[in-house]
Amino acid sequence: MFNLFLILHITAGFSALLTFWLPLVLKKGGNWHIRISWFFVVMMGIVSITATGMAFIRIFIQPDTSPERFSFSIFLLFISVLSASTAYYGLRVLRFKRKSDRHRHLGDLAFSSLLFLAGLSCSIYGFSSGNTLISFFPFLGIFLGLGQLAYWLRPMPVRNSWLLEHIQGMIACSISTVTAFTVFGAPRLLGGGFRSFYLWILPTIVLVPFIFYFSRKYRITK
Mean pLDDT for the chain? Predict the structure, then answer.
């Protein structure tokens, strides 16, 4: 079962990695933008499910006492939550373009809360275990989770806030894809390790500016 999850995870992960950038450059709302975006979301759904499955097998079914392996499983769980919740959020804000001042849908609030708690828990584990890498990267989940909750529970600050949040959600989902590859995939293909702090933060440094760029480009005030 673990090997099956691993094959599906790698296949879907590479597919998402090859296509995540296309919706950024294609015409927003166009047919190709929509089709490729849905393909990306489906691939990230598979990535999230398989990552959760592999982590649970390693932690609960076939426990691996190696500290490095256990840390990897914890990170895998966090990545699965980050991938799923940001993709889900990116879709749901499109569904509720004209939300009320306070959006009380239980599923939406639960996903955002889960992202916040997953980031907080992973970071606490990182600090308690002395793992610097896992200590700081989950801050992304903490900030995104709080930001999502703030959007759902407050009035929209600008007329097209839903579009800005959609872009943020999808780029954040892309960050999880690229981070997982640069930290675990690329070093293994090149025969190296995955301990470098710079590898963990590089995708965030590269992709976060796109959030600010598109937010400024498409922002429409009331």
Answer: 87
Q: In this prediction, what percent of the chain has a pLDDT beyond 70?
A: 91
Report phi then psi at 154, rounded to 5. -125, 160
CA 161 to chain centre: 20
Q: What is the pLDDT of residues 119-176, one digit of tens each?
A: 999 999 999 988 887 888 899 999 999 999 999 999 888 888 999 999 999 999 998 8
Residue with tokens 């047919």: 31
Specify the amino acid at residue 204: T
Non-local CB neighbours of 148 within 8 Å, separated by 6+ positions: 85, 89, 111, 112, 115, 165, 169
- The Cα 125–Cα 123 span in angstroms is 5
Distance of CA 28 to the CA centre of its chain: 21
| Residue type at 114 in one-letter notation | L
Contacts of 132 (CB under 8 A, 6+ apart): 126, 197
Neighbour tally for 31: CB within 10 Å: 9
The rounded Cα 179 to chain-centroid distance in angstroms is 9
What letters, b where the CB count within 10 A reaches 16 and e where it falls short, cover 122-159? bbebbeeeebebbbebbebbbebbebbbebbeeebeee
Q: Are 48 and 118 in contact (CB under 8 A)?
A: no
